[in-house]
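Readers outside the structure-tokenisation community will struggle with the description of the input data as it stands. I therefore recommend that a typical entry be quoted early in the introduction. An entry of this sort, consisting of the sequence and the corresponding backbone structure tokens, reads as follows:
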Amino acid sequence: MYNKKYFLGFSDHWVGPYTINELRDLPLAKTNKIWTEGLKEWADIESVDELRGLINLIPPALTSYDEKQRREDYKIDYVVRGLEDVGERYLNYSYVFQFLSAVLLIVSVLAGWYCIFAYPPAFICYNCSAIFVLTFFMCMALVVLGFLNWQKYLEIKKKICDVLSGGIGRCDS
């Protein structure tokens, strides 16, 4: 049995000989034809007892998914990935602007506090009211920039939703 040689048959030719160990490495299907010593005719692999355990499951060809659809799906994936990258960039800028505005707000409050109580240490600032006004308006500008970036992110997220939903504008998230 171990020295037995097997031949695989295809529609117009055959290949081999193979040992049973060599057949284990091949992607075999139930309908492959095989011949070995002792068989009168070519037989399906599943009908030969010693070869039944060698049959691998091979899925049928996917014919319903045509090349045009594959290209269309690739284009959609490309657009969505690009929009996600741009949206993430706007979202990250929004976080930076929020952080900077929080820092400037703290500086502004401290400068205003020093101005109100008129105890500014000379080495910190000479004109606390100017620092207060400047940092306050910078803080407000950063808040506005953060808001605008957040709005741009939401707009891009809506575009992604439109692309994925085919224009009907309904997304799960």
In short: The first strand starts at residue 6 and ends at 9. The chain has a mean pLDDT of 71.
